[in-house]
Amino acid sequence: MTTNNKKKLGLKDKYRYLTRDLDWEPSYQKKEDIFPFEQFEGIKITDWDKWEDPFRLTMDAYWKYQAEKEKKLYAILDAFAQNNGQQSISDARYVNALKLFISGISPCEYGAYQGFARVGRHFSGSGARVACQMQAIDELRHVQTQVHAMSHYNKHFDGLHDFSHMHDRVWYLSVPKSFFDDARAAGPFEFLTAISFSFEYVLTNLLFVPFMSGAAYNGDMATVTFGFSAQSDEARHMTLGLEVIKFILEQHEDNLPIVQGWIDKWFWRGNRLLSLVGMMMDYMLPNKVMSWAEAWEVYFEQAGGALFKDLARYGIRPPKYVEQCPEAKQHITHQIWAALYQYSQATNFHTWMPSDEEMDWLSAKYPETFDKYYRARFTFWREQQEKGERFYNNTLPQLCQVCQIPAIFTEPGDPTRLSHRSHVHEGERYHFCSDGCCDIFKNEPEKYVQAWMPTHQIYQGNCGGADIESVVRDYYNINIGEDNFEYLGSRDHRRWQEWKGEKPAADELPKAG
């Protein structure tokens, strides 16, 4: 009779066997030839074994956990669809926030998946490779669950079709697209600083919490469910982000100025990108959660402030131009909404002017700015719409060469004057919305002179037509008058009124002209 004296492996040993012990030292190829991108950014790594993996997750455990979440998620999505959950939301205006999400954020999740899959290949440390592999799979899962959750809305509302096609072409979607293209075109360490740290750790709560809370407040249980399903993944991503930055800083003192420069750059790029999320919070949600100013205070000023105090021991200071944000948070959402309102003939969603009740809410949340600078303008535009003279801007705006947002923001300290910077590089003048974007360009002009600027391309005739209507219809693949323009009287609005048994709005849709 024989007995099996082999002990069951502990979690620590199992993790080591399935990750670190799969690594090997190359024998017939040079390490720098196998991992050519690990050194060109100037980052110095002295010991990859110092990389810590707080979750110590192996692939078999990963699939088990994710499979359980998938079962619960799709059961709820099926129930939502079978019970016509789209009729339980607060108002059809809310769906425009989903249009922004599916065309502006979900494709970026796919870009993040591609980025992590690529950079994971270029680290010689096995711990970093495993972490990037896990996050790559997470990001791919997120885009899939988001598409499935919103596919039900696509059956009933306009503007959700061809979201990936629109992401690559529609002018305002070049803002999120350029952010992730910029990160993916960087080296592996800068990519991790940009996405894992600056975006996932410092700024991700400002993205996902408003969207998921907004969904909950407006009766959208499908979106809430995929948000909860992704939350445990986001916890890993944030932990990876903090580990990345601390690991790099602890490896060599020469890494500090490089990392500080990346934090400055990617904070500013993320801050500009999130202005779209702030606009959604303040204007697109019928049932509002909190203002953008309040969210910025909670999730950046308080949480981010504590983070940078902690990182001060490594020599890291708060990002450059962060001192402009307390003032900017009082203005940017109103400025973004004003821009998208007058250019909604070229977007995949509807816009409208807020009601008196909503303006009162904005006034209470922004007591020092809304009434003084924005209420009169919005009231006038609403009166024009009611007279059948809805305002559309038929000229194309000047875009910032870096963040690609139209130059609509105002000068720090003077909300009555537009902020504009320019810089001449190799005989050609480039334009920017701020000192932050101008500095980013000056540091890497060779990268940003290649930016695909939508308004420039339209004027050059590279977008399928000489007039805006042809571009929107043929190049963007947007159904004119159904996917865009004024919400009141739109097909989304009329369908919602039919569900609710209300008197239908006028059939004639307002047109630009």
UniProtKB/TrEMBL annotation:
Alphabetically ordered keywords of this record: Monooxygenase, Oxidoreductase
InterPro entries in UniProt: Ferritin-like_SF, Phenol_Hydrox, RNR-like, YHS_dom
Record flagged with keyword Oxidoreductase: yes
Keyword Ribonucleoprotein: no
Entry-linked Pfam families: Phenol_Hydrox, YHS
Domain called YHS: residue spans: 410-452
Molecular functions (GO terms): monooxygenase activity
Protein known as: Phenol hydroxylase P3 protein
